[in-house]
Amino acid sequence: MDWQDDDVEMLLRQFQPREPGPLPEVARERRWSYFAVLAAAAAAVVLGFISVSVFRTAAPRPDGRAIAENAGGNLSLVANGTSREVKPGEKIDRGSTVRTAEGAGAILALADGSHVEMRSHSEMALESANDGALLRLADGSIIVNAAKQAAGRHLYVSTRDVQVSVVGTVFLVKADEQGSNVAVIQGEVHVKQGAVERDLHRGEQAASRPKSELAIAVEIGWSREAAAYLAMLHEEIAQSVAARQAAPPAAAVPAEAPKTPQFEEASIKPCPRDYEAPQGMRGGGSNSMRLSPLRLDALCITVATLIRTAYRPLNNNSDFPGMPASEHALRPDTTYGLGGEDGTRVRGGPDWVRSEKYTIAAVTGGATDLHTVQSSMLLSLMESRFQLKTHIEVEQFPVMALTIAKGGLKMKRVGPDGCLKPPPPGEGGPRFIDDAELARRRREYDAARRGATPGCGTRFDNIGPNGVIIGGAASLSSLANLLTTASRPPFGWIGEETNGLLIINKTGIPDTDTFNFFLEYAADEEALVQTVPPGFSKLNSDVPRGPNIFEALEKQLGLKLERDKGSREYIVIDHIERPSPN
Amino acid sequence: VKLDHDQIGRLYRQHGRGLIAYACSFVRGFEAAEDVVHQVFVRLLHGHVTIEGPPAPYLYRAVRNSALNDCRNHSRDVELNEAWLEGPPGMEGTTLVIESALRALPPEQREVITLRIWGQMTFEEIAVTIGIPQKTAESRYRYGLVKLREEFRPVTQG
User: Fold this and answer.
1) Which of A142, A447, B57, B142 is 20 to 30 Å from A365 at the Cα level?
2) Contact criterion met (CB < 8 Å) for B78 and A425
């Protein structure tokens, strides 16, 4: 199914820009500055009857006032037994009491840049203290994401029976009528309960009632930022574990053989039905996957897709030719629609591996790099629960081969220093494709055509009616990959001349040999119009139309492009069983 | 027209998100965009500026100029890349895909798409705001959508 423009518009409109911080006020009694305030913040979860004070250095003064950042009709101002709705962006003066509705929370921005997330059905008063602001929680739960405090200024969160002082930290506090709990996610806190005071460090908890240790991950689950806090918590724990592991052992212990990384726990359940993706967006429906350093979630996914996703990139059988394996991993916290498997990459095994779908939830047991989660851990899971056994086979398939033309190579062989290094980071900022930029590119390409030293790496672009490919100390395989990219959608500049076939380097020249090159060829006019902004090609319309890609390669670089056979890898399933019960 | 503080506050609440999105089409990262938008409003609050005509085109033009100045001044030697979009429940992760796809667009197409989608402007307003013919605005928008459609393809086959 192809997307229409309306689908793209609908998708975009589902996403909204984050709301900016409160507007700085000037020349008024209330002088709040929110510039550069939201830097390293500390967060606290407060539930029940606890008092929290946050001590930081630098920046603005808390004064017990707030702005409703994300109220969404869920927040009410309570006064004299009546209440009225607080509108998003509305200022809340000190002395006010606010309450969240049943089933929905709200976020407040304090004058010092701190943010307070209120759980549904919570009530809190905003008050001033002698040296700062005081949030008095009457009922429910809040998460305080505290900004740095000015010298001598404090932010307090108060409940009934405990006080907690914080020095740059993230922590969770829970309380009910029976007592209170404090658990530190990051940094440290100082807890005061009556005359008893103590410091807590990351991973530690204190309770004013016996036998009530918190499951922190569960307690913060209501927060919009729960994933971030959870990741923070696990990162802290992982670091703590790593530090312990790095410490010299008390006694010599024989080293264990390294184990294949495995998920700590995994649930695999048959998918009861197919899920349509959310309207306007296909990632997120069946065959979708989401990774984080802490877990893998797959929704109604076929085993064939799982195998394909877990395997290393297959030689000459990837959606993204030339992409290094290190960039093949899915990005964190992003839902990918991975699609089905059409038999190109995964073959053999019973039919159900391509039709039956499973929903998988697996936890890594600690912060783990995504490549390990996606490959080693996922494969290991499939081997243990599906009894999966596979091997790789190689087959011949039609390709376009890049070979050396009769006259020999016409490219300059250079080492890694034979090209211009890119400018250091921070030079320039975003570059706008305006007349000046087009003129700059024109000069650059004219110079490259005359043999000037190009920038390092490869790129492709167009100038007027022509496509150009520029290489600086680049391999011929990278040239072949760019030719493939330029020939396939969405570009298609090389048109039907190569039939979208994979273009592979068959010159016999290894990738350790690198060259400077400039290739200019006549681009497919229709494809160019579709993919280049109007005016872009017009402005360089005086550039003469170049030769077709075959001639260009031969005359400019001494290379030949011709139909051939190549070899590609695919995965064969030797054995698989339906998964064992959880 | 010289606006009072309450009027400026209302404008900020009304256009703040759209202006942030627009600033994000020039500068990298939410915080840098927020600084740019705040600079514009601080000038208004100081009473240094009078607005002639409807305020929205002025605000967007002012944000554009401030953002371009920010880029020219090379004031940030580290590229920030904080998320600036928020997704609906269950689709939060997709914001990265959308932001990445927008970043991959030619800037002039990104600019028009941002003004249209999040600035909620008509093509006529877009044309006035950035000083281009309306037809150009329309075609930049159309070409931008075509590219986005292709950008989304690798992660949305399913």
Assistant:
1) A142
2) yes
